[in-house]
From TrEMBL:
Top-level taxon of origin: Bacteria
Name this protein carries in UniProt: GNAT family N-acetyltransferase
Feature: compositional bias, Basic and acidic residues: 166-181
InterPro entries: Acyl_CoA_acyltransferase, GNAT_dom, Ribosomal_N-acetyltransferase
Gene3D superfamilies xref list: 3.40.630.30
Record domain N-acetyltransferase: where: 41-181
Region annotated Disordered, chain positions: 148-181
SUPFAM superfamilies cross-referenced by the UniProt entry: Acyl-CoA N-acyltransferases (Nat) (SSF55729)
Source organism of the structure: Hymenobacter monticola
């Protein structure tokens, strides 16, 4: 079974469930209660929009237990001092790895929480999670050519430029070594 929660120094990264996605999409007043976290003012962030949440919910519904952990993940900033546990971003895989062990990741951080290294930490957590599964050999990510911050985040996590997609976005890749058991 794939772990559905991972920890980094400042983040708890929680795999999206059907219950969380349903609340986020259809009962938003229950969403922060289920998460046990405050929401940022600009939720949802960046490219994580309603269509992405619906995609993740559809995939989790279609795939049942085998799909858990292969789609959306919520990034929760751990409580610290007077700051409560807060939802700061969303990331995820676009599905399980293919036959070659390649999986695609994406990520978005809420505007109020950018430029604090949380995106780098979030992606590092997903890379570690991918290694822990023992199923992923290569990760792929795409970012806009005019987003140097996202490109630097990927480089800090061991990704290297690997050309571009048909839509003009830049492609980055990195190898994933299975975690030592």
């Amino acid at each position: 079974m794939i772990p559905l929660i991972t920890q980094t120094p400042r983040l708890t990264i929680l795999a999206a469930s059907r219950a969380l996605l349903t609340a986020e999409l259809h009962k938003p007043h229950y969403f922060p209660v289920l998460l046990g976290a405050a929401l940022p003012t600009d939720w949802p962030p960046g490219e994580y929009d309603r269509a992405a949440a619906e995609f993740f919910l559809d995939k989790l519904t279609e795939g049942g237990r085998d799909a858990a952990g292969w789609y959306g993940w919520y990034a929760l900033r751990k409580a610290e001092g007077d700051t409560p546990r807060t939802l700061v971003g969303h990331a995820g895989f676009m599905g399980p790895p293919d036959a070659t062990g390649t999986a695609e990741i994406g990520y978005s951080i809420a505007a109020d929480w950018r430029r604090q290294g949380l995106g780098t930490e979030l992606v590092a957590g997903l890379v570690a999670h991918a290694a822990d599964t023992g199923m992923v050999r290569r990760l792929v990510a795409y970012t806009d050519a005019d987003n140097p911050g996202s490109q630097e985040l990927l480089r800090r996590n061991g990704f290297e430029p690997a050309g571009s997609a048909d839509d003009g976005r830049l492609r980055f890749e990195r190898a994933v070594e299975p975690a030592a058991k």
